[in-house]
Specification:
The protein is 32% helix and 19% strand. The chain is built from nine helices and nine strands. The strands form two sheets. Strands 3-2-1-7-8-9 form a six-stranded parallel beta sheet, sandwiched between helices. It has a three-stranded antiparallel beta sheet with strand order 5-4-6. The longest helix has 14 residues. The termini are close together. Bound molecules: nicotinamide-adenine-dinucleotide and zinc ion (ZN). Zinc ion binds next to loops.
Length: 236
């Protein structure tokens, strides 16, 4: 326990924390994700209708990871993970790998990962090859063309919900970084944490849809504000 009085922290991150690394956020000013309507690339129905389009979309997102680096906000959260003596869980909605490349370990990907795939034939989750479009074989059952991105699409159940709910109930500080507050269940985490008595802080470029629910909000770039917040917490 530090001078701040906090013991147990949950940090929720969204696409905004990766924006300064050059990973476009979900809803740009045009309401599209990299030029696509969300219904066309991020639902099970879209995959059923046009698997080639969806595979090509995620192959491109996966390839783009090689051209980006973690930014100051990812590095600050990795520093928090290394130094914080109490409990910490970083819950990311992001499917990129920038938190772990910055060195964060106490984290979960609630919406899956671009670098993972799962087999529709046998259910095995596995490292994704560079491209899924050419129908690679499953590492477990050998079936060809049955691997899909291990991404939680709209209408599917997010991962690690039991662990996340337990951490929300136990935390005394909840911080949401770079998320629009539009995608449930993540958008409801602030109410849950607050209900159980946590102090709640939003760090976002602009007020999110749920900004009024937070005790405190800081608006600006994550790359500026997250290192300041972590520094104050660790030195407090
Ligand atoms: P979102 O795109 O809906 O919202 C991003 C938020 O970040 C916005 O409120 C925006 O104002 C804010 N923001 C933009 N630049 C910022 C900056 N420099 N500093 C601080 N805040 C900034 O993103 P979301 O809420 O995460 O929506 C969710 C879905 O999008 C998730 O399901 C996620 O899987 C998917 N997604 C992931 C990635 C990624 O992995 N990097 C990218 C795009 C979309
Ligand atoms: Zn298989």
């Amino acid at each position: 326990m530090r001078g701040t009085g906090f013991q147990s922290i949950v940090v929720l991150t969204g696409a905004g924390i990766s924006a300064e690394s050059g990973v476009p956020t979900f809803r740009g000013p045009d309401g599209l994700w990299e030029g696509h309507r969300i219904e066309d690339v991020a639902t099970p129905q879209a995959f059923h209708r046009d698997p080639a389009l969806v595979q090509a979309f995620y192959d491109a997102r996966r390839a783009a990871l090689a051209r980006v680096e973690p930014n100051a906000a990812h590095r600050a959260l990795a520093w928090l993970d290394a130094e914080w003596p109490g409990d910490l869980l970083i819950v990311t909605q992001n499917v990129d790998d920038l938190h772990e490349r910055a060195g964060a370990a106490r984290m979960v990907h609630m919406h899956g990962e671009l670098k993972r795939a799962f087999c529709l034939a046998c259910g095995e989750r596995q490292a994704a090859p560079d491209t899924l479009s050419d129908g690679p074989a499953c590492a477990r059952c050998g079936a060809h063309g049955r691997l899909r991105p291990d991404i939680v699409w709209f209408g599917e159940m997010p991962y690690h919900m039991d662990r996340i709910e337990a951490a929300l109930a136990a935390c005394d500080l909840f911080v949401s970084i770079g998320t629009s507050g539009a995608v449930y269940p993540a958008a409801g985490f602030v109410q849950g944490a607050r209900h159980y008595g946590a102090h709640t802080l939003e760090i976002n470029l602009e007020p999110s849809e749920g900004t009024h629910v937070f005790h405190e909000a800081r608006h600006g770039r994550a790359g500026d504000l997250v290192p300041l917040w972590v520094g104050a917490l660790l030195e407090g």
